[in-house]
Amino acid sequence: MAIQPVPVPSVEDYERLMRDLNHRVWEVRRNACEELGAVADARAVSHVIRLLSDGVGAVRFAAAEALGKIGDKSAVGALIGLLDNPQFGSYGPVIESLASLKAQEAIPYFIRFLRDHDPRVRGLAANALMVMTRQFIGFKAKGTEEERAAAIVQWEAWWEKNQNTMK
Q1: How far apart are CA 125 and CA 83, in angstroms?
Q2: Which of 11, 43, 79, 125 could form a disulfide with 110 if both were Cys (CB 3.0 to 4.6 A apart)?
């Protein structure tokens, strides 16, 4: 099956999406982020980054997802900054986007998120670690605290040994 090229939005569509990113209705802002992510238009990165601090969680999450889909590494710093922001909400879209961008500087954060209270976040972090490092350290997001702690120790030891080769 052939890969279909991503359509570049027309000038009119791009201008509409830029206006929609500033719309007063949050669903319109969210939809604009989703559409920009779908077309992977790198011209929009700085505009979408701005929406990472939107007052509506659904818009912030859509912006984070869009940045991962756009694939422009200039978004990595803004996304990593969210991992230290306890007000952001669910870190799932950020973890997925950073993994998609192969942001190796996020690896210590992913290891930290193996301790998160949410098993979904723990699972996303574990998956991101395996995909980015090509290492398999058995981590069960819903495992016992002892099982998870043992795997975290292994990930921390692996990072300590390999962090200089990853950058």
Answers
A1: 12
A2: 125
Please, are residues 26 and 35 in contact by the beta-carbon 8 Å criterion? no
Instruction: Give every CB contact of residue 26 below 8 A, 6+ residues apart in sequence.
Output: 54, 55, 56, 58, 59
Q: What is the pLDDT of residue 62?
A: 97
Higher-scoring residue by pLDDT: 84, 51? 51
Question: What is the per-residue DSSP string for 60-108?
Answer: HHHHHHHHHHHT-GGGHHHHHHHTT-TTS---HHHHHHHHHTT-GGGHH
Q: Residue 130 is encoded by which pair of tokens?
A: 């395996």
Q: So what's the pLDDT on residue 88? A: 84
pLDDT tens string 28-53 = 999 999 999 999 989 999 999 999 99
Nearest to 113 by CA among 105, 125, 104, 130: 125
At residue 136, the 3 state secondary structure works out as coil
CB atoms within 10 A of CB 146: 8
